[in-house]
Amino acid sequence: xxxxxxxxxxxxxxxxxxxxxxxxxxxxxxxxxxxxxxxxxxxxxxxxxxxxxxxxxxxxxxxxxxxxxxxxxxxxxxxxxxxxxxxxxxxxxxxxxxxxxxxxx
Length: 105
Prior knowledge:
Layout: E1 12-17, H1 20-26, E2 30-35, H2 40-48, H3 53-63, H4 81-95
Antiparallel strand pairs: 1-2
């Protein structure tokens, strides 16, 4: 396979947080979007994190988007902790997805 066949621009992917705690608190699932591919520096920053939770929030803040590909959180804005933790978990799970991006699975 030619490596060029694997190259493409990142696409927005809808992520739904629908755990029972979120649904009970907000009355419905909460959606956010993130790109299906991230830059190598983003992955390296995440890999180098140890207990630096501020850095984790900074990185995730650049990853979670709205349906138009714009950051959800602007300067000084924060989400309630009861939704931020499940969003962090969903984003990290998506970043660690082991399925090849070229497969249908």
